[in-house]
Amino acid sequence: MKRFRGYGTLLTVVFVAAAALIYTLTAGNKPLLGLDLQGGVSVVLKPTGAVESDTLDQAITIIRQRIDSLGVAEPEITRQGDNILIQIPGVKDKDRAIALVGQTAELQFRPVLGTIPVTEPVEETTTTSTPASTDTTVVADPTASTVAPAETTTTIEPVTTTTAPANGGYSNQTCIDGVTDEQSNPTGQALLPECQDGILVATYAVGPVSLTGSALETARATLQNGQWTVSPTFKGGADGIGLFNGVAAQCFSKASTCPSGQLAIVLDGRVLSAPTIQQASFQADQIQISGSFKERDAKDLATALKYGALPVELEQQQAQIVSATLGQDALHAGLVAGLVGLIAVSIYMMAFYRVLGLFAILKLVIEGALLWSVISWLGTNNGLALTLAGITGIIVSIGVSLDSNVVYYEHLKEDINNGRSMRSATDKSFVSAFSTIVKADVASLIGAGLLWWLTVGPVRGFAFYLALSTLLDLLMSWAYMRPVVKFVTKSRWFGHSKLLGLPAERPQPVRGRNTAPVSAATEEANR
Amino acid sequence: MSVLGRLNRGETNINFVKWWKRGLVLSGLLMLISVVSLTTRGLNLGIDFEGGVSWEVQAPGVSVDEARDSLGTVGEGAAKIQIVGTDILRVQGPEASVEHVAEVRQNLAELAETDVANVSVSTVGASWGSDITASAIRALIVFLIAIMIYLTIRLELRMALAAIVAVVHDVLISVGVYSVFQFEVTPGTVIAFLTILGYSIYDTIVVDDKIKENERLVGMTGRMSYTQMASLSMNQVLLRSLNTTISSLLPVLSLLVVGAFIMGAVTLEEFSVALTIGLVVGAYSSIFVATPVLVFLKERQPKIRTIRERLEAQGLSTTATPERLVEARANTANVAPEGNSSTAAPKPSSAPTASGAIPPRPRKKTRKR
């Protein structure tokens, strides 16, 4: 008897699966749960018009920086076609996270016409001083200034105060909801709120937009003489610093277009800061916004100046807040259902195919170990999350895996029924059956690949895990199923057809074609 | 021999020609109902397609009426309120401001006596759903083309066409079920519909591979028409199809019964209802749609037609299960090709002659033992 080489692949597969499982357990790799399973925030953004691929990547970078500023763990920001999918698992302040990534409006600079301070203290009744950012100033950078005389930094213009009722009609809620496009009226005058931590601190009457964030090159927050200041750097030329100096001159001279001498920095309909312009002309990289900033305020302002304007307008397509308890319930249900399904299908396979069925289940176990290792590895190292759709894909793939066994076993039965010896049928059937399996699995892979390529969101997770388990099935059908069935049919212990759920071998030789299974033929004919 | 025993041995003697006719009537009827329902009733699209806000919270013991009373105070009295799963309260309303969404969230948290963090919210813009639908339809079309090319290369064009007909049949009926029963269509359902394609193709490939393997019986003895051969193949492949369907169906049924009904996981329900329908329809269509369509196409091939005409001229039935079937079956095994059946199968290379003679019986390959 020639030694069968297939056992090598069998040993390899079992060894690799065991090694992978041990590695996964010792390295402490665990699958990364998607936010539909552990709770969190998911936002899908889509550009409003056609955009270049680079522009979108740039937008993603900006959004990533914004989320990083929240300090949350492992945000996942991916691009799917033209959509940007943002997933922030387990975020505490979910509404703030959504607001932050959804903050897609242009950064605007608008001259201040007048200020309405908060008439009734909204939160703290003991507040005695006006809020900090109303008395910020824009000055030339004193450390590097060649234009601005030093004394201008010391003059702080008093804030123009106009008495108007009811805060211009705004309340704290405006800070959460923002203003409508109509209210923000970029080409004319508008009343805009200034908020701090969701509390309305002032309302400004502002003129039309003078320039937008696109004129800015960058911005940074620095600590100077114990005070936090923000240093924006404008782009050179007429579209950058030229525009800024145009409005700065108006404000400095307190022209009718900018009577207050203040220039409001507006993001998403909210005034971030309204510094007073201290000189008529600035150099692009020597501007400072100073005031009684706290560190966080200064950094937030710098971030908004730097990244405030995304290169493209994004529209929120979908936002989801998943509660952790509902997510865990879904995970639990998915796992229990998977287990019950596995047991049910094991019983069925073993009832039908006996020992061969048992080895089909063992195949599932090995595939499971490999799959778990791969998912854990991807979750730990690539941040690829396992979603409920993915779990469904895996449960569906239980069927895919067993289908391969059924196809082979049925072929085996048929060949033995037709008079082949068990030994010869084992080899012959595998060839035909594997050809069928490859055809069917490749068709599945084509489907999964197209789903991955052409769709967004949860469909992708499903497609990925379906493809992964289909590939595993192809590998296992060849490397595991063939040698195992060979082993079993040759074995003294199992080689009994009853134990294998196979029909008994028919005594007549295969060669006698014309006299083939006479008994069966007459039986059928007699019916 | 019992029916089950014969099924187990692939020795059933069902005349599928008769059943195909019944199957086509059934399929035609189901497809008609689907089309009528889709055009008149349409689909019950979830908020993911229509745009809107959906809140979900686990609220044991809270009834829909209680929820409606409570939500009336925040202006959502007219919202769609359901208990899904076992105790999950789902409220769906039109698109709303962030403020309103938070307000309702708070209201629901109080109603369910839980923390606000335990209320899930999903806000969907109106164009999101059409995006999903558009991408799903695009995926469907590209999938069909790709599969068609693949099957044409691996099997043959007519089988590819028949498989596509079966897939369209499956998807149409599955979507039809959703329309007739007005089940809610969610992105999960769309995923499931796309998976149905895979199942349907899988089953059809298993069946087609068997037909391909048996193809040489047609014309070899001059005693069997393509139709009869296909019917014989169905008998042989019946158990295989049943078992692959059952082994796929059991885990999916477990998702539906254990995951969705008993444990109340709503998302699982969305997947598994569609998958269950699709699996059953897919298994049915591989035998009762793909194969008759293939037979229909093949019987129009000159060579195949010639064989049938010859058989008819001899006064033999071209549709009934031939009595030599069992004998033929034995032959199948004996001339079982080496390697890939579809490539090793002796292709009838000689074109039918003008006289309509049956091409010579292809030479058998030397058997390897």
UniProtKB/TrEMBL annotation, chain A:
Region named Disordered: 505-527
Organism annotation: freshwater metagenome
Main location (coarse class): membrane
Transmembrane parts of this sequence: 330-348, 355-378, 384-409, 430-456, 462-481
This protein's GO CC annotations: plasma membrane
Protein translocase subunit SecDF P1 domain span: 56-112
Protein name: Unannotated protein
GO BP term, example: intracellular protein transport
Domain SecDF P1 head subdomain per the UniProt entry, residue ranges: 206-312
Domain called Protein export membrane protein SecD/SecF C-terminal: residue spans: 313-488
Gene Ontology terms for molecular function: protein-transporting ATPase activity
Subcellular location: Cell membrane
PANTHER family named among the record's database cross-references: PROTEIN TRANSLOCASE SUBUNIT SECD, PROTEIN-EXPORT MEMBRANE PROTEIN SEC
UniProt membrane topology term: Multi-pass membrane protein
Record's signal peptide: none
UniProtKB/TrEMBL annotation, chain B:
MF term (GO), any: protein-transporting ATPase activity
Transmembrane segments: 24-43, 132-153, 160-181, 187-207, 249-268, 274-297
Membrane topology of this protein: Multi-pass membrane protein
InterPro entries: SecD/SecF_arch_bac (IPR022813), SecD/SecF_bac (IPR022645), SecD/SecF_CS (IPR022646), SecD_SecF_C (IPR048634), SecF_bac (IPR005665)
GO CC annotation: plasma membrane
Keywords of the record: Cell membrane, Membrane, Protein transport, Translocation, Transmembrane, Transmembrane helix, Transport
Keyword Protein transport: yes
Chief localisation class: membrane
Entries under Gene3D superfamilies matching the protein: Multidrug efflux transporter AcrB transmembrane domain
Pfam families: Sec_GG, SecD_SecF_C
Compartments where found: Cell membrane
Protein export membrane protein SecD/SecF C-terminal domain ranges (all copies): 108-299
Keyword hit for Oxidoreductase: no
A GO biological process held by the record: intracellular protein transport
Region (Disordered): 318-369
UniProt biased composition (Low complexity): 341-357
Cited NCBIfam families: transloc_SecF
Protein's recorded name: Protein translocase subunit SecF
